[in-house]
Amino acid sequence: MMRTLIAALGLSGAALLATPALALDSDANQPINIAADRLDLDDRAGTAVYTGDVDMQQGSMKLTAQRVEIERNDQGEVTLVTATGGAERAYLEQRPAPDDPLVKGWGDTIIYHAGERRVELIGQAELHQASDTFNGAYVEYFLDNRQVQARSQVQGTENQRVRMSLTPKSAEQ
Known about the structure:
Layout: H1 2-16, E1 32-35, E2 38-42, E3 47-58, E4 61-72, E5 78-84, E6 90-94, E7 103-107, E8 109-113, E9 118-129, E10 132-142, E11 147-151, E12 163-165, H2 169-172
Antiparallel strand pairs: 1-3, 2-3, 3-4, 4-5, 4-6, 5-8, 6-7, 7-9, 8-9, 9-10, 10-11, 10-12
C-alpha cells in the first residue's frame, strides 16, 4: 500500500512537471528529476512544494535549494518556480547553447517566470555569465536575449552595491 502511494505521488509530481521547467530549448525534451526530503503536492491547486536539500535537474539545468515551489496553470504548464536557500543560497546553472559556458546564479531566493523566460536572483544575488560576473541585492536575467539588470536594493533585503566584472573578449581566449 505504501509503495503504491509513493509511486502515485511520484507520477503525480512527474505529471505536474511534464512541461519544461527552467529549461532552454535544448533541454526542453529532457526528463525532469527531483530529489528532496519531502514533497507536498496539491494537484487541484497546481502546486508542488519540495523541501529539504532539493536537487532538481533537467538536461543542462541544475537547481539546488532548501525549498522549491512549482506552480502550474490549468493546462498543466509550469508557470513559476520559486527556490529558497537556507544556510546556503539557492543555486541555478544552465548551458544556454551547446558551445556556451554554463551560466550560474545564486540568491537567497531564485524565481523563474516560465512564460517570460526570466530569472530573478534576490538577496545576495550573483550571476556568472561566461567570464563576466554581476552582484547586487537583486539581479535579473532574461534567458532569450541574455540581458542582465541589477539593483543595489530590493524590498526586504539589505542594500548591496551593484558590482560587475566584465572580461574583454580578447582576455577570454
